[in-house]
Amino acid sequence: MASRKGNGRPLEDFFGLLLLFPWWVTLIVGSGLWGYLKLQPSPTGFFLEKPVLIWFGLQFLKWACLGASFVSGVLTLKRKILFASAKDIEAIRAMSWREFETLVGESYRRQGYMVEETGGGGADGGIDLILRGKGQKILVQCKRWQKVKVDVMIVREMFGLLHHEKADRVIIVTTGTYTPDAMDFASGKPIDLVNGKALVQLIRDVKGEPVATRFATTAQSAQPAPMKALNVQVPASTATAPACPKCGSPMVLRTARKGTNAGGQFWGCLKYPACKGIVGV
3-state class of 131 per DSSP? Predict the structure, then answer.
C-alpha cells in the first residue's frame, strides 16, 4: 500500500507546498517580500554570516512565491475550463485519467477543502488526492472506469490506507458503478462510494445549478434514478432520493454507525459535513 512520505527532494516538496495555496496568497507574499527587500541595503560580509544567509533566504522565498503564484494561476485557469466542460457523464468519461483526477479535486476544492494531488495514483490506483479542511483528513481514489465495476478489493485497500495514513474518511469516485460486495463492505464504515451519477449531481450542485435543473425529468424517465454514494444500500422499492430540506442538494441513503439508530438507514445530504440535513426513510 502507498505511503505518504517525503520524496527526498526538499525543493520540490517546498514548491509543491506553495502550490497548495491560492495564487493570490503567494502573490501577496512574494510582492511583500519584493517591496521589503527593495528597502533593505544589500548585506556585506561572508556568505555564511547570519545577515547574508537571511537576505539570500528571503530572496529565494520571494522568487519561489512569485513563481508558485504564476504556476498556480495557470493551473487554476485550466481547472476552471475543465470543470466547466464536465456537463454530463459522457463528457467526464471522455477525459483522461489525469483530467478526471483534476476534476474530482476541483469539485472538493470548491467546497472549501485544501486539495493535495499526490501524483501517486495514476491510472492504476492508490491515493490520488488528499483533502484537508473542516476538521478532517480525507483520502480520495479516482477510478475512470466505464465497463468494469469497482470491486471489494479496492475498497478494502483504501480502508487499510485510512488507518495507515491516520485519515478520517475515504472517498472512492468512479465514472461507473460498484459491485454489491464493495457496497456491502463500505456499509457502516467511513467510506464514501461515489458513482458516475452521484458525481454528476455533485458537480452540478457545486456549480450552483437550480434544483429544478438538477432533478429535471425526461420523457424516458419520469423520476430521477436513486443515487448510490456514501454507504448506499438502495431498498428494493428504489425510492426516489429526496432533496435536502436545508440546502436543496441531492441526498444519499446512509447507514447510522452509532447512537440509538445504529444500523438504521436515513437520507443524508450529499454535501455533508458542510450541510447536515437528514430525512428519515
Answer: strand
Name which of 268, 231, 273 is nearest 250 in CA terms. Answer: 268
- How many other CB atoms sit within 10 Å of the CB of residue 174? 24
* 184 class by beta-carbon count within 10 Å (0-12 exposed, 13-18 middle, 19+ buried): middle
Domain boundaries, the chain: 10-85, 89-280
Pairing status of strand 278-280 against strand 265-269: antiparallel
The single-letter code of the amino acid at 227 is M
pLDDT, tens only, 77-106: 888 898 888 888 899 999 998 999 999 999
Distance CA 63, CA 34 (A): 9
Band (249; pLDDT cuts 50, 70, 90) = confident
Q: Which helix (H) or strand (E) holds 39?
A: helix 23-39
- For residue 104, the model assigns a pLDDT of 95
Task: Give the pLDDT score at 7.
Answer: 53
Is the domain 89-280 a CATH 3.40.1350.10 member? yes
How many residues does the structure list for the chain?
A: 281
Q: Give 246-250 contacts, CB < 8 A, sequence gap 24+.
A: 246/275, 246/276, 246/277, 247/271, 247/275, 247/277, 248/211, 249/205, 249/275, 249/277, 250/198, 250/201, 250/202, 250/205, 250/214, 250/215
Q: Quick check: bond before 235 cis, omega within 30?
A: no
